[in-house]
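Researcher: Structure for this, please.
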Amino acid sequence: MGTILLLAIAVCVAGVLLVGVSTWVPASSATTMAFELSADSDRSTIAIEHRVGGTVDVRELSITVIVDGAELSEQPPVPFVGATGYDGAPTGPFNAKADPQWSAGERASFTVAATNDPPLEMGDPVRVRLVIGGRVIADLEAIAR
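Model: Predicted structure, token format:
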């Protein structure tokens, strides 16, 4: 009698789980993206390659650069051309005159001016956070070479 009751309970629980799992839909179908960061201390250049994932509209992107534990005093206002704290124009989709759609396989870079603080020096840890609409899409780290 006890065995039959235990078997009946197990069948009922299995049925409830089956119905619950079959109707479950993930709340988010976010596309996975991957980026690669590099920092060149000789040229004070920070470059990011979009390696995998969907297209990013850089007009919606905010970037925070941290060098040796401190945020740059002037953050890159992508897309831009001739911004305070940066030398020249950035490359790729970070340049305001380029296509703002950043696709996998594309590389974007900018040169930090000597007036921006802290300076980018060899061996410094560099961290770059990419954010769209308050959501971090990448938190990247590299050592300046």
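Researcher: Any notable elements?
Model: The longest helix spans residues 2-22. The mean pLDDT is 87.
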